[in-house]
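One such given next:
>
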Amino acid sequence: MRINPTPSSPAVSTLEEQNLGRIAQIIGPVLDVVFPPGKMPNIYNALVVKGRDTIGQQINVTCEVQQLLGNNRVRAVAMSATDGLMRGMEVIDTGAPLS
């Protein structure tokens, strides 16, 4: 049985409230991420990069915000390998520190 979310469904509201950014730069384990104006994550927030690399393998990298760079950018450090990450990939701000 498949349930389609409705506008009043909690799944839809959490999806709409997710704070999404995009990778602007990758240097080793360090990522610069751009967020929409007014949606900057706090320092020490956990960020999650999910997607697929160029050969279709699943990517799931958790990062921690270390610095607010200005111009709607943050600098984060990855907690695992950044192989396969590309500029423009979607980044989710969890709204909470690593636990």
